[in-house]
Design a protein that fits this description.
Layout: H1 7-34, H2 38-48, H3 52-61, H4 65-68, H5 78-87, H6 89-92, H7 95-104, H8 110-139, H9 145-194, H10 199-210, H11 215-230, H12 234-245, H13 248-263, H14 267-291, H15 293-323
Helix pairs in contact: 5-8, 7-8, 8-9, 9-10, 9-14, 10-11, 11-12, 12-13, 13-14
Main location: membrane
Subcellular location: Cell membrane
Protein name: Type II secretion system protein
């Protein structure tokens, strides 16, 4: 008997084909957003040239900066500025240390300093109230009210410390980016200097080229270029670079640059030695990180791999024992 499709089967097949066609049409329409064309983006950056590519990289990486915190604002917030001015927080706190800390985090100007000082005070005032509400409403311990208030008062110290912890986290991320890209920047500096460029031109060229790899390093080198052009003492410009970054490799390079200009030694030879040392240091750091992986993997293996292995090995024996002869 030949196979014949009934009317319900035909309807079901049509519905399934229509659904598949709809899903396929949606995927085709949304595919450019689902799978981005990385090659086209690279070609566009190359066509724009080295001057525009770092700017686009900075724009992409800094697109979320405005929403991250008021520390990144250009102008001081009026509320924060009023708090700092009326309470004289700049005089009561270590303004110089706070400014140096913010510069190491890449936050320059008066707005980040005002936001940092005001946020420490606001957090120190708000955290005890938040801690008291959490303890009384959520934890609900069987303790007298004065003891709960004393426990909540610890939140003042925590709130005063949290903005500084946030800035230290920014510094750590920034130094990690600088540390990875610094040997490459030294190689580029060496090439520029040996091609006959001056130190200002070399720093400017490296700042343009290194922006796609490290936005932070491009900013620091651009600022150093400006300081070399405007400061009367070139040594101060180099020392400022080492102070802002806080990295030993950068400080060693700064000392080499200062001695090269002071005693007239070969800048190319100095950069060659420093670049080799920086690459060796980066390789040693990578080897140290790789050597620390086995101890770190011990706990995950004990918690996740060994129980499954024991279950696979012991399950057949347990089934045989339970099932009997």
């Amino acid at each position: 008997m030949p196979f014949e499709l009934t009317t319900p089967q035909v309807q079901q097949a049509m519905i399934m084909l229509t659904a598949l066609a709809t899903v396929a049409a949606v995927l085709v329409a949304a595919w450019p957003w689902i799978a981005r064309d990385r090659m086209a983006e690279r070609i566009r950056l190359v066509e724009k040239g080295p001057r525009q590519a770092p700017r686009d990289a900075r724009a992409r990486s800094g697109a979320h900066g405005a929403a991250r915190s008021l520390l990144f604002a250009k102008e001081p917030n009026r509320i924060f500025a009023g708090i700092v001015e009326r309470l004289s927080l700049a005089r009561l706190t270590d303004e110089g240390g706070a400014s140096k800390l913010l510069r190491m985090a890449g936050l320059r100007g008066q707005a980040p300093l005002v936001a940092f000082l005001a946020s420490r005070l606001i957090a120190a005032v708000a955290m005890p109230g938040i801690a008291f509400a959490y303890i009384t409403l959520v934890v609900q311990p069987d303790l007298p009210l004065p003891i709960i208030a004393a426990m909540a008062s610890v939140g003042a110290a925590i709130g005063f410390w949290l903005p500084k912890l946030y800035v230290h986290n920014l510094i750590a991320k920034r130094q990690s980016s600088l540390r990875r890209s610094w040997p490459d920047a030294l190689d580029l500096l060496l090439i520029c200097v040996e091609s006959g460029m001056s130190s200002e031109s070399a720093f400017r060229k490296v700042a343009e080229e290194i922006g796609a790899q490290s936005r932070e390093l491009a900013e620091e080198m651009s600022l150093t270029t400006a300081e070399l052009a405007y400061l009367s003492d070139r040594r101060q410009a180099y020392e400022n670079l080492g102070t802002r970054t806080g990295l030993d490799s950068v400080k060693a390079t700064v000392i080499g640059l200062i001695q090269s200009e002071k005693y007239g030694t070969s800048l190319g030879q100095t950069l060659r030695v420093l670049a080799k040392e920086s690459r060796d240091f980066r390789m040693a750091a990578a080897e140290k990180k790789a050597a620390s992986l086995p101890p770190k993997l011990t706990v995950p293996m004990i918690l996740f791999f060994l129980p499954v292995l024991f279950a696979v090995i012991a399950t057949p024996a347990v089934i045989q024992a339970v099932g009997g002869p």
